[in-house]
């Protein structure tokens, strides 16, 4: 009989629980945020697992890159000792690093930015081998040619039609997210019979974890479309098949001219906390919504982790908590590098 990897789940969960115990506590994170300089904040990490890769002599960009590299390495390790049955989903999820790098490369073309490498995260993918060639393209049409015969070939017709002087990158960036999460959900819901039986047993938390990520992407896509004054009828093609928020709600939101009015449509949904932003100014809604969504994601992660002590919810919950921890550290270092104090930093942390 072919090994499914399910028998190794107990061993995997033990390792994940041990890792969760090493997460930085809210009190420790607050103490890091209260330091005066980047060097002092780095010193506070000496008793954590980040100390091996981050030194006091590094500048902000090195620290930020190392934190992203740490998350990538952690996710790779989790995927390696997760049950074989889950690895197909994780492989798709890990493609988001390619998506992030491709977004960096496309922005480098638009902004003629030759320092884009500071924002890349090195992976072993085939796309990463092409990233420099893409980023150094003279225009989007040239970049499109380099994406032919890759899994991102679906961007070619869009990049060939972009007006570089007037068009933004919202269309290709949103389409990248759409394809990423469609592929993830496809692996969750359309697996072979053997895998599907396993997913049915643990379906609630697996679908909740990835489904709410899809809903978050949809909500953020609609909010960005309003900010960028897209026509409502253009938005639907960039939305992924939703999980809990119905498509009609998303399309109704897209019809508003003001972000504050749009978020009121989220009352009585899982994302109703965003309705509290109805009085915010336009730029603030986008920023505040991101913070509220991060807090909601942490709440969901804890629910999933606790709800299924002997299932994949432990793994998925830990991954979300680890990602939020690194987001907190990146915010702290970003703000400190800009000379911003603790009172402002604490407003953006998810503790």
Automatic annotation (TrEMBL):
A Pfam family this chain is assigned to: vATP-synt_AC39
The keyword Lipid biosynthesis is assigned to this record: no
Keyword terms, alphabetized: Ion transport, Transport
Ion transport listed as a keyword: yes
GO molecular function: proton-transporting ATPase activity, rotational mechanism
Family designation: Belongs to the V-ATPase V0D/AC39 subunit family.
Protein name: Archaeal/vacuolar-type H+-ATPase subunit C
Organism: Methanonatronarchaeum thermophilum
């Amino acid at each position: 009989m072919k090994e499914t990897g399910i028998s190794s789940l107990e061993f995997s969960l033990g390792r994940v629980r041990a890792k969760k115990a090493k997460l930085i506590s809210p009190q420790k994170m607050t103490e890091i945020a209260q330091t005066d300089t980047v060097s002092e904040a780095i010193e506070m990490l000496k008793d954590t697992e980040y100390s091996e890769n981050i030194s006091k002599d590094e500048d902000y960009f090195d620290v930020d890159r190392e934190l992203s590299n740490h998350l990538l390495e952690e996710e790779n390790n989790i995927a390696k000792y997760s049950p074989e049955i889950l690895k197909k989903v994780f492989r798709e999820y890990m493609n988001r690093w390619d998506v992030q790098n491709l977004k960096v490369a496309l922005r480098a073309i638009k902004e003629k930015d030759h320092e884009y490498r500071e924002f890349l995260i090195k992976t072993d993918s085939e796309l990463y081998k092409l990233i420099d060639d893409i980023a150094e393209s003279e225009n989007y049409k040239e970049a499109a040619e380099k994406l032919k015969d890759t899994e991102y070939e679906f961007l070619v017709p869009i990049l060939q039609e972009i007006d570089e002087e007037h068009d933004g990158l919202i269309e290709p960036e949103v389409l990248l997210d759409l394809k990423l999460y469609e592929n993830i959900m496809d692996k969750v819901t359309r697996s072979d019979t053997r895998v599907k039986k396993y997913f049915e047993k643990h379906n609630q938390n697996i679908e909740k974890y990835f489904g709410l990520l899809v809903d978050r992407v949809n909500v953020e896509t609609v909010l960005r479309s309003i900010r960028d004054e897209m026509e409502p009828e253009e938005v639907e093609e960039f939305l992924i098949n939703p999980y809990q928020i119905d498509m009609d709600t998303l399309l109704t939101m897209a019809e508003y001219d003001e972000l504050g009015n749009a978020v009121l449509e989220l009352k009585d949904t899982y994302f109703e906390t965003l309705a509290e932003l109805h009085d915010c100014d336009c730029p603030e809604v986008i920023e505040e919504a991101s913070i509220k969504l991060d807090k909601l994601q942490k709440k969901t992660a804890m629910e999933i982790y606790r709800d299924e002590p002997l299932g994949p919810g432990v793994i998925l919950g830990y991954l979300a908590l680890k990602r939020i921890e690194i987001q907190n550290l990146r915010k702290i270092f970003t703000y400190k590098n800009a000379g911003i104090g603790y009172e402002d930093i604490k407003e953006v942390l998810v503790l």
